[in-house]
Amino acid sequence: MELNCLHLSKSYGRILALNDLTFRFTPGAYALLGPNGSGKTTFMNLLIRNLQPDSGEILWNGTPVAALKNAYFGHIGYMPQYSGMIPQFTVRRFLGYMAELKGLNEGQPKKEARTRTGREIDELLAELELTDYADSRIRTLSGGMRQRVMLAQALLGGPDILILDEPTAGLDPKQRILVRNIVGRMAANRIVILATHLVSDVASVANRALLLHKGNLIEQGTPGELMKKLDGWVWTVRTDGKPGKAAGPAARIVSLLPEESGNGFCVRVISKDRPSPDARPETPTLEDVYLFFFGDPAEDGCIASQKTDDCP
Ligand SMILES: Nc1ncnc2c1ncn2[C@@H]1O[C@H](COP(=O)(O)OP(=O)(O)OP(=O)(O)O)[C@@H](O)[C@H]1O
Ligand SMILES: [Mg+2]
Protein backbone atom coordinates (compact mmCIF):
# COMPACT_ATOMS: atom_id res chain seq x y z
CA MET A 1 0.00 0.00 0.00
CA GLU A 2 1.65 3.25 -1.05
CA LEU A 3 0.70 6.78 -1.95
CA ASN A 4 3.42 8.43 -3.93
CA CYS A 5 3.53 12.20 -4.41
CA LEU A 6 5.85 13.35 -7.14
CA HIS A 7 6.89 16.99 -7.59
CA LEU A 8 3.51 18.43 -6.59
CA SER A 9 3.10 22.17 -7.03
CA LYS A 10 0.04 24.35 -6.63
CA SER A 11 -0.39 28.11 -6.89
CA TYR A 12 -3.40 30.35 -6.26
CA GLY A 13 -2.75 33.25 -8.59
CA ARG A 14 0.62 34.58 -7.55
CA ILE A 15 0.70 32.66 -4.24
CA LEU A 16 2.79 29.51 -4.48
CA ALA A 17 0.99 27.39 -1.86
CA LEU A 18 2.90 24.15 -2.50
CA ASN A 19 6.30 23.93 -4.12
CA ASP A 20 7.62 20.75 -5.74
CA LEU A 21 6.65 18.36 -2.96
CA THR A 22 7.83 14.77 -3.31
CA PHE A 23 7.04 12.17 -0.64
CA ARG A 24 6.09 8.51 -0.46
CA PHE A 25 3.52 7.41 2.14
CA THR A 26 3.26 3.80 3.31
CA PRO A 27 1.05 2.63 6.23
CA GLY A 28 1.66 4.67 9.36
CA ALA A 29 0.75 8.04 10.85
CA TYR A 30 2.23 11.17 9.30
CA ALA A 31 1.89 14.64 10.76
CA LEU A 32 1.97 17.68 8.52
CA LEU A 33 3.38 20.31 10.81
CA GLY A 34 3.61 23.95 9.89
CA PRO A 35 2.38 27.42 10.76
CA ASN A 36 -0.72 29.07 9.29
CA GLY A 37 -0.55 29.32 5.53
CA SER A 38 2.29 26.81 5.11
CA GLY A 39 0.31 24.69 2.61
CA LYS A 40 -1.07 21.84 4.74
CA THR A 41 -4.70 22.15 3.61
CA THR A 42 -3.63 22.72 0.02
CA PHE A 43 -1.58 19.52 0.08
CA MET A 44 -4.54 17.62 1.55
CA ASN A 45 -6.87 19.01 -1.09
CA LEU A 46 -4.50 17.67 -3.74
CA LEU A 47 -4.39 14.28 -2.02
CA ILE A 48 -8.18 13.98 -2.02
CA ARG A 49 -8.39 15.38 -5.56
CA ASN A 50 -10.49 18.30 -4.49
CA LEU A 51 -7.82 20.38 -6.27
CA GLN A 52 -5.68 19.54 -9.28
CA PRO A 53 -1.93 20.18 -9.05
CA ASP A 54 -0.37 22.67 -11.48
CA SER A 55 2.37 20.12 -11.97
CA GLY A 56 3.40 16.77 -10.56
CA GLU A 57 1.30 13.70 -9.92
CA ILE A 58 0.00 11.34 -7.25
CA LEU A 59 0.24 7.57 -7.64
CA TRP A 60 -1.83 5.10 -5.62
CA ASN A 61 -0.07 1.72 -5.65
CA GLY A 62 1.74 2.77 -8.81
CA THR A 63 -1.28 4.05 -10.78
CA PRO A 64 -1.83 7.78 -11.31
CA VAL A 65 -4.90 8.72 -9.28
CA ALA A 66 -6.23 10.73 -12.22
CA ALA A 67 -6.52 7.43 -14.13
CA LEU A 68 -8.30 5.71 -11.22
CA LYS A 69 -11.13 8.25 -11.40
CA ASN A 70 -13.87 7.52 -8.85
CA ALA A 71 -12.31 4.23 -7.71
CA TYR A 72 -9.69 6.29 -5.87
CA PHE A 73 -12.31 8.03 -3.72
CA GLY A 74 -13.37 4.65 -2.32
CA HIS A 75 -9.97 4.41 -0.61
CA ILE A 76 -10.17 7.81 1.08
CA GLY A 77 -11.65 9.10 4.31
CA TYR A 78 -11.39 12.85 4.71
CA MET A 79 -12.05 15.13 7.61
CA PRO A 80 -11.97 18.77 6.47
CA GLN A 81 -10.58 21.61 8.58
CA TYR A 82 -13.83 23.55 8.28
CA SER A 83 -16.82 21.31 8.05
CA GLY A 84 -19.91 21.79 5.98
CA MET A 85 -22.28 19.70 8.07
CA ILE A 86 -26.01 19.69 7.73
CA PRO A 87 -27.18 21.35 10.95
CA GLN A 88 -30.76 20.10 10.91
CA PHE A 89 -29.73 16.43 10.53
CA THR A 90 -29.30 14.27 13.59
CA VAL A 91 -25.85 12.77 14.06
CA ARG A 92 -27.05 9.31 13.04
CA ARG A 93 -28.86 10.57 9.96
CA PHE A 94 -25.83 12.63 8.90
CA LEU A 95 -23.56 9.58 9.14
CA GLY A 96 -26.06 7.45 7.22
CA TYR A 97 -26.23 10.12 4.55
CA MET A 98 -22.41 10.28 4.31
CA ALA A 99 -22.22 6.48 4.01
CA GLU A 100 -24.69 6.73 1.13
CA LEU A 101 -22.68 9.51 -0.55
CA LYS A 102 -19.52 7.46 -0.22
CA GLY A 103 -21.25 4.63 -2.01
CA LEU A 104 -20.65 2.20 0.85
CA ASN A 105 -23.97 0.51 0.17
CA GLU A 106 -23.63 0.24 -3.58
CA GLY A 107 -24.42 -3.05 -5.23
CA GLN A 108 -25.81 -4.65 -2.08
CA PRO A 109 -29.36 -5.60 -1.13
CA LYS A 110 -30.89 -2.52 0.48
CA LYS A 111 -31.99 -4.05 3.76
CA GLU A 112 -28.69 -5.81 4.48
CA ALA A 113 -26.67 -2.74 3.56
CA ARG A 114 -28.75 -0.59 5.88
CA THR A 115 -28.32 -2.99 8.79
CA ARG A 116 -24.55 -3.24 8.24
CA THR A 117 -24.11 0.52 7.93
CA GLY A 118 -26.30 1.04 10.99
CA ARG A 119 -24.06 -1.31 12.96
CA GLU A 120 -20.90 0.43 11.79
CA ILE A 121 -22.36 3.82 12.70
CA ASP A 122 -23.26 2.57 16.19
CA GLU A 123 -19.72 1.29 16.67
CA LEU A 124 -18.18 4.56 15.54
CA LEU A 125 -20.51 6.56 17.78
CA ALA A 126 -19.50 4.44 20.75
CA GLU A 127 -15.82 4.70 19.91
CA LEU A 128 -16.03 8.49 19.68
CA GLU A 129 -18.17 8.78 22.79
CA LEU A 130 -21.09 10.15 20.81
CA THR A 131 -23.70 7.47 21.52
CA ASP A 132 -25.69 9.79 23.79
CA TYR A 133 -25.90 12.35 20.98
CA ALA A 134 -26.84 9.97 18.16
CA ASP A 135 -30.32 11.45 17.89
CA SER A 136 -29.37 15.05 18.63
CA ARG A 137 -29.48 17.56 15.83
CA ILE A 138 -26.02 18.67 14.75
CA ARG A 139 -26.84 22.34 15.35
CA THR A 140 -27.26 21.60 19.07
CA LEU A 141 -23.78 20.06 19.45
CA SER A 142 -20.68 21.76 20.82
CA GLY A 143 -17.70 22.43 18.55
CA GLY A 144 -15.75 19.49 19.95
CA MET A 145 -18.68 17.12 19.39
CA ARG A 146 -19.09 18.28 15.78
CA GLN A 147 -15.40 17.72 15.32
CA ARG A 148 -15.82 14.09 16.43
CA VAL A 149 -18.84 13.63 14.15
CA MET A 150 -16.63 14.75 11.27
CA LEU A 151 -13.99 12.25 12.31
CA ALA A 152 -16.66 9.52 12.46
CA GLN A 153 -17.72 10.21 8.86
CA ALA A 154 -14.07 10.05 7.73
CA LEU A 155 -13.72 6.63 9.36
CA LEU A 156 -16.85 5.18 7.69
CA GLY A 157 -16.05 2.16 5.56
CA GLY A 158 -12.53 1.75 7.01
CA PRO A 159 -10.65 3.64 4.23
CA ASP A 160 -7.02 2.80 3.32
CA ILE A 161 -6.04 6.47 3.33
CA LEU A 162 -7.23 8.72 6.11
CA ILE A 163 -6.72 12.44 5.67
CA LEU A 164 -7.48 14.53 8.72
CA ASP A 165 -7.13 18.31 8.61
CA GLU A 166 -6.51 19.45 12.18
CA PRO A 167 -8.50 16.66 13.84
CA THR A 168 -7.59 17.72 17.37
CA ALA A 169 -8.25 21.46 16.99
CA GLY A 170 -10.75 22.68 19.55
CA LEU A 171 -10.91 19.43 21.52
CA ASP A 172 -10.53 19.26 25.28
CA PRO A 173 -7.51 17.28 26.51
CA LYS A 174 -9.48 14.06 27.14
CA GLN A 175 -11.05 14.08 23.67
CA ARG A 176 -7.72 14.94 22.11
CA ILE A 177 -6.25 11.80 23.64
CA LEU A 178 -9.25 9.79 22.42
CA VAL A 179 -8.71 11.05 18.87
CA ARG A 180 -4.98 10.41 19.04
CA ASN A 181 -5.61 6.85 20.17
CA ILE A 182 -7.98 6.26 17.27
CA VAL A 183 -5.44 7.72 14.85
CA GLY A 184 -2.73 5.50 16.31
CA ARG A 185 -4.86 2.39 15.95
CA MET A 186 -5.95 3.21 12.40
CA ALA A 187 -2.33 3.82 11.38
CA ALA A 188 -1.39 0.21 12.11
CA ASN A 189 -2.52 -0.84 8.64
CA ARG A 190 -3.51 2.37 6.89
CA ILE A 191 -1.97 5.59 5.70
CA VAL A 192 -3.05 8.33 8.10
CA ILE A 193 -2.06 11.89 7.31
CA LEU A 194 -2.99 14.60 9.78
CA ALA A 195 -2.37 18.31 9.70
CA THR A 196 -1.66 19.94 12.99
CA HIS A 197 -0.12 22.90 14.76
CA LEU A 198 0.31 20.86 17.90
CA VAL A 199 3.74 19.51 18.60
CA SER A 200 2.14 17.20 21.18
CA ASP A 201 0.09 15.51 18.41
CA VAL A 202 3.30 14.72 16.59
CA ALA A 203 5.01 13.39 19.68
CA SER A 204 2.11 11.14 20.63
CA VAL A 205 0.91 9.62 17.35
CA ALA A 206 3.08 10.38 14.36
CA ASN A 207 5.60 7.91 13.00
CA ARG A 208 6.96 10.70 10.85
CA ALA A 209 6.53 14.45 10.68
CA LEU A 210 6.66 16.54 7.52
CA LEU A 211 7.59 20.14 8.23
CA LEU A 212 6.03 22.58 5.77
CA HIS A 213 7.14 26.17 5.51
CA LYS A 214 5.69 28.51 2.88
CA GLY A 215 4.77 25.57 0.67
CA ASN A 216 8.16 23.88 0.94
CA LEU A 217 8.84 20.53 2.61
CA ILE A 218 11.79 21.78 4.61
CA GLU A 219 12.40 18.73 6.81
CA GLN A 220 10.97 15.30 7.50
CA GLY A 221 11.74 12.44 9.83
CA THR A 222 10.66 10.51 12.87
CA PRO A 223 10.21 12.64 16.00
CA GLY A 224 13.45 11.11 17.31
CA GLU A 225 15.39 11.96 14.16
CA LEU A 226 14.11 15.54 14.19
CA MET A 227 15.07 16.06 17.83
CA LYS A 228 18.49 14.55 17.21
CA LYS A 229 19.20 17.27 14.65
CA LEU A 230 19.30 19.78 17.51
CA ASP A 231 21.61 17.70 19.71
CA GLY A 232 24.13 20.03 21.29
CA TRP A 233 22.17 23.15 20.30
CA VAL A 234 19.75 23.57 23.22
CA TRP A 235 20.80 25.33 26.42
CA THR A 236 19.44 26.95 29.50
CA VAL A 237 21.06 30.07 30.80
CA ARG A 238 20.38 31.80 34.10
CA THR A 239 20.57 35.52 34.06
CA ASP A 240 19.84 38.44 36.32
CA GLY A 241 20.14 40.82 33.43
CA LYS A 242 18.70 41.07 29.94
CA PRO A 243 17.67 37.64 28.59
CA GLY A 244 18.57 38.58 25.03
CA LYS A 245 22.10 39.43 26.06
CA ALA A 246 22.48 36.16 28.00
CA ALA A 247 21.26 34.15 25.01
CA GLY A 248 23.69 35.75 22.59
CA PRO A 249 22.94 37.46 19.30
CA ALA A 250 22.74 34.30 17.16
CA ALA A 251 20.42 32.40 19.47
CA ARG A 252 16.71 31.70 19.29
CA ILE A 253 14.92 31.93 22.61
CA VAL A 254 12.50 29.08 23.23
CA SER A 255 11.21 30.11 26.61
CA LEU A 256 11.78 32.70 29.22
CA LEU A 257 10.76 31.78 32.73
CA PRO A 258 11.01 34.24 35.59
CA GLU A 259 12.78 32.60 38.50
CA GLU A 260 10.75 32.02 41.61
CA SER A 261 12.92 34.41 43.58
CA GLY A 262 11.80 37.09 41.13
CA ASN A 263 15.36 38.23 40.57
CA GLY A 264 16.17 36.81 37.20
CA PHE A 265 15.24 34.53 34.35
CA CYS A 266 15.89 31.02 33.22
CA VAL A 267 16.22 31.27 29.45
CA ARG A 268 16.00 28.24 27.15
CA VAL A 269 17.85 28.98 23.94
CA ILE A 270 18.78 27.26 20.71
CA SER A 271 22.28 28.23 19.78
CA LYS A 272 25.01 26.51 17.80
CA ASP A 273 27.62 27.84 20.22
CA ARG A 274 27.50 27.67 23.99
CA PRO A 275 25.92 31.03 24.87
CA SER A 276 27.90 31.49 28.09
CA PRO A 277 30.37 29.43 30.14
CA ASP A 278 27.72 28.52 32.72
CA ALA A 279 25.04 27.60 30.13
CA ARG A 280 23.64 24.12 30.77
CA PRO A 281 23.15 21.72 27.81
CA GLU A 282 19.59 20.40 27.49
CA THR A 283 17.98 17.48 25.66
CA PRO A 284 16.11 18.79 22.60
CA THR A 285 12.32 18.46 22.51
CA LEU A 286 9.95 18.66 19.55
CA GLU A 287 8.96 22.09 20.78
CA ASP A 288 12.56 23.16 20.23
CA VAL A 289 12.43 21.64 16.74
CA TYR A 290 9.26 23.59 15.92
CA LEU A 291 10.69 26.87 17.14
CA PHE A 292 14.01 26.26 15.45
CA PHE A 293 12.28 25.91 12.08
CA PHE A 294 9.27 28.16 12.53
CA GLY A 295 10.10 30.63 15.32
CA ASP A 296 10.56 34.27 14.46
CA PRO A 297 14.12 35.34 13.79
CA ALA A 298 15.70 36.30 17.08
CA GLU A 299 17.31 39.45 15.75
CA ASP A 300 17.26 41.07 19.13
CA GLY A 301 17.53 37.83 21.05
CA CYS A 302 13.80 37.55 21.81
CA ILE A 303 11.09 35.68 20.02
CA ALA A 304 8.20 37.96 19.19
CA SER A 305 5.61 36.12 21.25
CA GLN A 306 7.66 36.52 24.37
CA LYS A 307 8.78 40.08 24.02
CA THR A 308 8.71 41.76 27.38
CA ASP A 309 10.11 44.95 28.80
CA ASP A 310 13.05 42.89 29.96
CA CYS A 311 14.14 42.14 26.43
CA PRO A 312 16.67 44.55 24.99
N1 LIG B 1 -8.61 29.27 -2.19
C1 LIG B 1 -7.52 30.01 -2.06
N2 LIG B 1 -7.33 31.12 -2.81
C2 LIG B 1 -6.22 31.86 -2.69
N3 LIG B 1 -5.20 31.59 -1.85
C3 LIG B 1 -5.33 30.49 -1.07
C4 LIG B 1 -6.50 29.67 -1.12
N4 LIG B 1 -6.33 28.65 -0.23
C5 LIG B 1 -5.13 28.87 0.34
N5 LIG B 1 -4.53 29.96 -0.16
C6 LIG B 1 -3.18 30.46 0.22
O1 LIG B 1 -2.27 29.39 0.07
C7 LIG B 1 -1.34 29.34 1.14
C8 LIG B 1 -1.44 28.01 1.84
O2 LIG B 1 -2.72 27.92 2.48
P1 LIG B 1 -3.22 26.59 3.22
O3 LIG B 1 -4.65 26.78 3.54
O4 LIG B 1 -2.84 25.42 2.39
O5 LIG B 1 -2.32 26.64 4.55
P2 LIG B 1 -2.43 25.78 5.90
O6 LIG B 1 -1.04 25.30 6.19
O7 LIG B 1 -3.51 24.78 5.80
O8 LIG B 1 -2.80 26.91 6.97
P3 LIG B 1 -3.65 26.79 8.35
O9 LIG B 1 -2.69 26.28 9.37
O10 LIG B 1 -4.03 28.21 8.62
O11 LIG B 1 -4.82 25.90 8.12
C9 LIG B 1 -1.66 30.55 2.01
O12 LIG B 1 -0.80 31.60 1.62
C10 LIG B 1 -3.10 30.87 1.67
O13 LIG B 1 -3.35 32.25 1.83
MG1 LIG C 1 -5.22 24.45 6.89
In short:
By secondary structure, the chain is of the alpha/beta class. The protein is built from eleven helices and 14 strands. The protein has helices spanning 40-47, 65-68, 70-73, 91-101, 110-127, 143-155, 173-186, 199-205, 223-228, 243-247, 286-294, and strands spanning 3-12, 15-25, 28-33, 55-60, 63-64, 76-79, 161-165, 191-196, 208-213, 216-221, 234-239, 252-258, 265-270, 280-281.
Q: Can you describe what's shown?
A:
This protein is an alpha/beta fold and about 300 residues long. The protein has two domains: about 5-220, Rossmann fold, CATH 3.40.50.300; about 230-305, no CATH class. Helices cover about 30% and strands about 25% of the residues. It contains eleven helices and 14 strands. The strands form three sheets. A six-stranded mixed beta sheet has the order 6-7-8-3-9-10, sandwiched between helices. Strands 2-1-4-5 form a four-stranded antiparallel beta sheet. Strand 1 (about 5-10) and strand 2 form a beta hairpin. The longest helix has 18 residues, at about 110-125. Adenosine-5'-triphosphate (ATP) binds near residues 12, 17, 36, 37 and 38. Adenosine-5'-triphosphate binds near residues 15, 17 and 42.
